[in-house]
């Protein structure tokens, strides 16, 4: 009879330890996995997630830093592409007529052409 009680006691202690270990490791790993899924779904800007394990906190902090660097690179590429597009429009305007825009009356024509070539920049004057 004692053997059954000892077996039940050790089994319950083992199950309790397994549950605690699962809670301590699985939850932080799941949070890390969720952060990676957010990056995949292009939700780069999200707050830093904290766990109770310092090693996971360090990994999540590094992952957050990496996400910020990726977001900064996206912005930098977007700005460079905008500058490149503006330069192409300006080059195209000068190819149409190299003396275009030298007189005050030509500014309205340039504004119309620039707005036609790039609608979101319709208010800007090229040159």
Structural summary, described in words:
The protein is mainly α. Helices cover 74% and strands 0% of the residues. The protein contains 3 helices and no strands. It has helices at 2-40, 54-96, 106-117. The mean pLDDT is 78.
What are its keywords?
single chain, about 130 residues, mainly alpha, about 0% strand
Q: Which blocks of ≥5 consecutive residues have pLDDT under 50?
A: none
Specify the overall morphology.
Answer: rod-shaped
Number of helices: 3
Cα separation of the termini: 96 Å
For the biggest sheet, the summary is: none
Strand-pairing-aware structural class: mainly alpha
Q: Please bin the fraction of helical residues.
A: over 70%
* Strand residue content: under 5%
Rg from Cα: 31 Å
How many β strands by DSSP? 0
Q: What count of domains describes the coordinates?
A: 1
The whole-number mean of residue pLDDT values reads 78
Run of helices and strands: HHH
Topology overview:
Elements: H1 2-40, H2 54-96, H3 106-117
Helix pairs in contact: 1-2
Summarize it.
With 127 residues, the protein is mostly helical. It contains 3 helices and no strands.
């Amino acid at each position: 009879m004692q053997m059954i009680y000892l077996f039940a006691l050790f089994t319950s202690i083992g199950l309790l330890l397994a549950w605690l270990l699962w809670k301590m490791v699985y939850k932080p790993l799941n949070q890390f996995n969720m952060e990676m899924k957010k990056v995949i779904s292009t939700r780069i800007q999200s707050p830093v997630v904290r766990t109770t394990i310092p090693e996971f906190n360090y990994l999540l902090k590094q992952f957050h830093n990496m996400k910020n660097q990726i977001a900064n690179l996206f912005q930098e590429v977007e700005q460079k592409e905008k500058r490149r597009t503006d330069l192409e429009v300006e080059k195209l305007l000068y190819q149409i007529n190299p003396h275009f825009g030298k007189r005050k009356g030509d500014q309205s024509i340039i504004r119309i052409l620039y707005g036609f070539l790039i609608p979101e920049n319709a208010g800007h004057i090229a040159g």
